[in-house]
Give the backbone structure.
Amino acid sequence: MTYLVLHAGRVGGLLGQHVVLVTVSLAIALAIALPLGVAAARTPRAGTLILGAAGILYTIPSLALLALLVAAIGLGPSTAIVALVVYAQMILIRAVVAGLRGVDPALVDAARGMGLSAPQTLLRVEFPAALPVLLAGVRVAAVTLVALATVAAWIDAGGLGVLLFEGIATQNDDKIVAGALAAAALAIVADLVLRGCERAVQR
Amino acid sequence: MSAPTTPAGARVEFRELEVRYADAPAAAVSGVNLTVDAGSFAVLLGPSGCGKSTLVRTINRLVEPTSGTVLIDGVDVRERELTTLRRGIGYAIQAVGLFPHYTVARNIAVVPELLGWERDRVAARVDELLALVSLEPARYRARLPRELSGGEAQRVGVARALAAEPRVLLMDEPFAAVDAIVRASLQDEIARVHRELRTTIVFVTHDVDEALRLADRIVVMNAGRIVQEAAPAQLLSAPADAFVRSLVGVDAQTRRLALERPLIER
């Protein structure tokens, strides 16, 4: 714990980097997963294709994916973000599909029957009704990304992983503990905050 | 507050209508020719799967016929832009389908807001409609659907369907999911609303007593076809065939007696 106390400033900085990595990745991942999830939920064939592809990407070991990406686009945070976005897809697309498929068909029937267009039905009725399931997916994705993002330090993308890799290299257990504790705390906080959001929309 | 103003009902006609679903061997609806007079209360009656819901859903084009036409006041529904057509037709269903994240007031206001009504007019209309379906506006306006009983939710569903002053109101088994006592009071309510507004109502049910209670004209359907179209009393006294006879059943005599009272009231 001494490292954490003595170098609170440095840990704080790395924690900030970590938060940025995860938040940016999650935002980009959502922007991709929402339209893909809608397409997958609408047409069974697209669903099989999209979920299949996301599933295959998800099974690639993270270090292998990072290594491949470094070869393709080089070192740095943007490479790490690409990898995190890829991993989040599987979780997020599944959540969008599950959320939309779980919407009461009567809601959609009523909405269409009253004269809402397809986009209006999606935005005003289906998404709000699917929101709790969708947010649960975002929560799982966020926690997963907090853990995965520690590996990003390996390709010069910063974040709390820096402490872990430095600690391993210099056999400084205190540093490893500091990095691990900070990452775990971040995951727990993200989980709690997003659970709060879920409860708020369920009310 | 004055009685709600709604333009008088429109005439609905089906001509040589046929609906065939892609995955089904038999037509869901076939050979349907029917005129629902302006301002009348028509009830489509038949067992489940007889095509009555399919038929009513061709009016607001939730189902597109394979052949034939549907006309509202002589105009083919396909000539109207889809959302414009639907916003001009009230639609109430068994599952109600109130938007769970909207208050009662916002649910009722959906179509008026889509039509761009001014805020004051929408608010006034919401209160007027809540009063019309016997829900005190001040008590119910701000409630969420999950804070309503089944009967209250269906009242809100009816109010929402009537919100933009439709000239045709479609009701697909609207009272089938509520208990008998609530159903009876909802039936009284919709009969009164119809008397006040004279909106054309096309109402789907499998419940003979409900049909007899509400209808000006009953359209009996079986296996996608119209078997008989008649006034309630006529249906009981002169069923067209064995199917209609079995549908109105052995209680026909009792039902005929029961029917006399509301007929006198009218």
In short: The domain at 2-202 of chain A is CATH 1.10.3720.10 (MetI-like fold). Chain A touches chain B through 17 residues (CB under 8 Å).
